[in-house]
Amino acid sequence: xxxxxxxxxxxxxxxxxxxxxxxxxxxxxxxxxxxxxxxxxxxxxxxxxxxxxxxxxxxxxxxxxxxxxxxxxxxxxxxxxxxxxxxxxxxxxxxxxxxxxxxxxxxxxxxxxxxxxxxxxxxxxxxxxxxxxxxxxxxxxxxxxxxxxxxxxxxxxxxxxxxxxxxxxxxxxxxxxxxxxxxxxxxxxxxxxxxxxxxxxxxxxxxxxxxxxxxxxxxxxxxxxxxxxxxxxxxxxxxxxxxxxxxxxxxxxxxxxxxxxxxxxxxxxxxxxxxxxxxxxxxxxxxxxxxxxxxxxxxxxxxxxxxxxxxxxxxxxxxxxxxxxxxxxxxxxxxxxxxxxxxxxxxxxxxxxxxxxxxxxxxxxxxxxxxxxxxxxxxxxxxxxxxxxxxxxxxxxxxxxxxxxxxxxxxxxxxxxxxxxxxxxxxxxxxxxxxxxxxxxxxxxxxxxxxxxxxxxxxxxxxxxxxxxxxxxxxxxxxxxxxxxxxxxxxxxxxxxxxxxxxxxxxxxxxxxxxxxxxxxxxxxxxxxxxxxxxxxxxxxxxxxxxxxxxxxxxxxxxxxxxxxxxxxxxxxxxxxxxxxxxxxxxxxxxxxxxxxxxxxxxxxxxxxxxxxxxxxxxxxxxxxxxxxxxxxxxxxxxxxxxxxxxxxxxxxxxxxxxxxxxxxxxxxxxxxxxxxxxxxxxxxxxxxxxxxxxxxxxxxxxxxxxxx
Length: 709
Fold this sequence. Notes:
By secondary structure, the protein is an alpha/beta fold. The chain has 23 helices and 17 strands. The strands form four sheets. The chain has a five-stranded antiparallel β-sheet, sandwiched between helices. A five-stranded mixed β-sheet has the order 7-9-10-12-11. Strand 11 (about 530-535) and strand 12 (about 540-550) form a beta hairpin. The longest helix has about 70 residues, at about 290-355. The radius of gyration is 48 Å and the shape is elongated. The termini are far apart. Residues about 50-60, about 505-510, about 550-560 and about 560-570 have low confidence and may be disordered.
C-alpha cells in the first residue's frame, strides 16, 4: 500500500469531490491535508512484524487523525461529512488492494478497520472539543453583550455613556479605540488605550493628520457608506510609505497599529458616527468572525449613544425653556415695575390736584410731573413696539437725505434736562464740515437718544459724557463715551441683547427694560452700519462707537432735512386754527371721547362725539362733517367697519369726508391696515394735542371745496 499511496490519495480526492462531500471552495491541497501521513500510520500497523498482533493492540489514539479533524472543522465540515470521508478512504484502500491482487488476512482487515475507526473517533472527539469551544465562545460573547447592554443603558448622561463604552472595549476587544461622532471636535472625541500615556498621541494624530475622506480604510468611508471594514494585517512598510511626513510617520510608529476594524454607528438607517477598534501593543489580529460580535456591540452602542444624545438635547431644550420662562417672568416683573412707577406719580398728583389743597406753584408742578410720567409711559410702550417689530422682522426705515450733525443736536437737546439735573458735563464735538448722509432722521435721532440716555443713566453726578461725530473715510463715526460705572467683561458680549441688564435684582439702582441698546443696534444695522461697545471694566466707564456709511446722495444740499435744535417751550400753547371746522369724534371710551371733545372745542371746532359705529353712521347722514376722528378697537363693530361704510356710502359728500384713525394699535401692520381700509391718516395714542390739531387743519385745507350740508 505504501507503493500505491499517491494513487490512493488521488482516488480519495476525486471521489470526495465527485460526491460533493467537502464544503464549497475547498482546494485539493486542503482536502489532502493529513491523509498521506494517516496512510503511513496504517501501513506501519500492517507491517509483517505486527500482523500477528491482535487488532485490539492497535493504537487507540492518533494525533494525526485529531489534527485532521481540527483542520476539517476549520474548513466548515460537519461530523457527518468527516465520517463519510473516512468511509471513502476505507473503500479506496480496499479497491486498490483488489487491483494489486493482494491477499488480505482477517487480522489485516481488522487492523485497518480499527485504524479507520480510531481516526473517526479522534475526529469526532476533536469536533466535540471544537463545538464546545464555539459554544463557550458564544456564551462568553452573549455574556459580554449582556454586560455591555447593562453598562450602556445604566445612564442617559451623554459623557458617561461614551466613557463607559471605551472602558468596555479596551482591553477586551481592542488595545485602543476611538469614537468618531459627527459634529464632535477632536478634543471631544472619546479615546481609550491600554497605555493611557498614548492617548495624547492618538489625539494628536487625529488632530494634525486627519484621515482623508477618500481613504479606503478609514472611518470617513464607513460613515459615508454605512458598512463596516476590517484590516486583518497591516504591513509596517506600507504604513511608513503612506505617511504624509516624518512627524506623521513617527506618530504611526509609536502607536504601532497592526490590525483594526471600523464599524458604523447607525440608528434607523442614519449613520452618525463610527467606532474604531485596533490592536497594537498585544500584536493580536482581527478575523472576519470578529465582525459579528463587534457589529452587534456597535449597534447597541449606537442606540445607547443616540438615546443619550436625545436626552442631552431634551435637557438642553428644557434648560432653554426654563431660562426663557425665567426671563419672561423677570421681564413681566420689570415691565410691571416700569409701568407702575409713573402711574403711581400720575395717580398721586392727580388726587392732590382734585383735593384743591395745592397752591398755584404746586398745581403747575403737579401738571409737569403728570405730563413727564405720561411721556415716560408713552416712550416705554414705543420701545416695546419697536422690539416687537425687530423680533418679527418688520422694523423699517424711511431713507432720505439728513444732516447727521443736526440729528445729533436734536437728540441732545431732549436729553439736556437730565444732564443738567445730574450736573454732568456734556462735551460735544461735531464734524464741522458736510455731515449729510442718506438715512432715516427720526430713527437716527432715536439711536443717539438711546446711547446718550444710557450714558447719562450710568454716569454718577458730576461725571462726564462726551459725544463726538467725525468723518472717517466713507463713514460717519459717532462716539458716545462716559465716565460712569463701566461694563464687566462677562456682561459685555450681552450688552446689546434684548431685555438684558447687568443687574436684574429688586435692589438695582437703575431702572429701564434693557431694550434701548438693542433697538439702537438694530436701527444702526438697518442703515448698513455697525455698533460696538467697549469698556475696561467696572468703574472705568463705557464707550459706544457707531459707524454709518454715507450712502449714495441725490444732492449734497437739495432736500436735506434739518430742524433747529432748540429747547421746546415749557408750556406749549394749542393752535387756534379750527374755527368753524365740524368734527365727528368716534370712541367707545368715555374719558378719551370727552378729552378729544374738550380739546377740539378749545381750538374753536364744532364737535359731536359718539360712542359706536352705528351712532357715527347715523350722525353723518343729516349733517355734513369736515373731518372724522375715529378709534379702531370698539365693540360690536370696529373703526375699519366704519370707514368701509363711509367710503362705500351712496352720498358723495359722506364718501369724501377726511378720516383720521386715532388708536392704540401702533404697529406698522396696524397703520397699513388702517390706510388700506380708507383712513387718510393713522395716529397713535397718546397723541400730542398740537399734532392732532395740525393734522385736522392739513386735511381740511387739502380737501377740495364743495357743497357743505
